[in-house]
Amino acid sequence: MIDLQTRRPELSTARLTLRPPEMRDAPRLAELANDFDVVRMTGSMPWPYTLADAEAFVRQAQDDARADEAMFCVELPGAGPIGVIGLDPDGVMALEAGYWLGRPYWARGYATEALSAVLDWARDGWRRRCISARHFADNPASGAVLVKAGFLYTGRVEMRPCRARGEDVASRWMIWLA
Ligand SMILES: CC(C)(COP(=O)(O)OP(=O)(O)OC[C@H]1O[C@@H](n2cnc3c(N)ncnc32)[C@H](O)[C@@H]1OP(=O)(O)O)[C@@H](O)C(=O)NCCC(=O)NCCS
Fold first, then answer.
1. 123-145, pLDDT tens digit by residue?
2. How many structural domains does the chain have?
3. Which residues contact 141 (CB under 8 A, 6 or more apart)?
4. pLDDT band, very low/low/confident/very high, at 170 (cuts 50, 70, 90)
5. Which residues have any ligand 1 atom within 6 Å of their CB?
6. Are 49 and 27 in contact (CB under 8 A)?
7. Which of 24, 48, 109, 133 is surrounded by the most beta carbons within 10 Å?
8. Which atom of ligand 1 is least distant from the CA of 148?
9. Could you tell me the pTM of the whole model?
10. What are residue 170's DSSP bridge partners?
11. Burial of 159 (0-12, 13-18, 19+ CB in 10 A)
12. What is the DSSP letter of 156?
């Protein structure tokens, strides 16, 4: 557990700003996330994804009681919010990385850039040494992002619920050590 100021930093990368989500971000986040090809690759996002869902996400990110997680709005200067990235407990031993970007912003290296910045901060700002991630086996793009950011496959594959698809999906565990 860390203090709020440390847990809610603003991080800058070469092209992006990662900052605490605010309620004014909710309409754009809802617009971008209301895309089945986004939500079907996540465990917990619903389909359809509404403004109320985005507002609930922001409220959760701002909840001081959730002291063991850190959520960032990924902002592209000039374009506004383009997605979300964060860390929360994986329920086993580590913090788990999760992220999504709106479709117009895919395939430009933004997810790798954002994840690398979050890992640097988790190590240097939060003093965390171990981060996990799970990606659905039918999501090789996320696997590529995780490999580029320095994660390794553990070999563990398990069925995980996907809320948007309404079914369990094979999910590959990965790990990153500082
Ligand atoms: C996964 C996601 C975050 C990737 O974001 P992005 O900004 O496009 O990622 P990057 O550009 O940093 O890197 C994507 C990599 O995936 C690779 N890739 C894309 N589609 C691929 C595919 N079908 N098979 C294999 N690799 C693929 C790209 O070539 C790139 O790797 P490279 O730089 O070595 O060429 C984005 O597609 C997304 O938000 N998807 C929906 C939500 C999601 O999947 N979240 C993650 C849940 S675990």
1. 999 999 999 999 999 999 999 99
2. 1
3. 106
4. very high
5. 38, 41-42, 99-101, 106-112, 135, 139-142, 144-145, 148
6. no
7. 133
8. 34
9. 0.96
10. 159
11. exposed
12. E
Strand-strand pairing, 130-136 and 167-177: antiparallel
Task: Determine the distance separating the centroid of ligand 1 and the alpha carbon of 51, expressed in angstroms.
Answer: 25
Residue 169, exposed/middle/buried by CB under 10 A (0-12, 13-18, 19+)?
Answer: middle
Lookup: tokens for 46: 């619903």
Rounded to whole angstroms, how far apart are CA atoms 128 and 107? 29
Which atom, in ligand 1's list, is nearest to the CA of 101?
A: 39
What's the CATH number where 49 sits?
A: 3.40.630.30
Residue type, 134: R
Q: Can you give the residue range of the structural domain that contains 91?
A: 4-177
- Residue 78 has phi, psi (to 5 degrees) of 95, -25
For the stretch 7-25, what's the b/e string if a residue is b when 16 or more beta carbons lie within 10 angstroms of its beta carbon? Answer: bbeebebeebbbbbbeeeb
SS3 128: coil
Measured CA angle at 111 (ends 57, 176), to 5 deg: 90
């999910």: which residue's tokens? 171
Does 4 have pLDDT greater than 60? no
Tell me which DSSP letter residue 171 carries. E
CA 105 to chain centre: 15
Q: Which residues face 172 on adjacent strands?
A: 135, 157
Collapse the DSSP code of 164 into the 3-class scheme (helix H, G, I; strand E, B; otherwise coil) and give the result.
Answer: coil
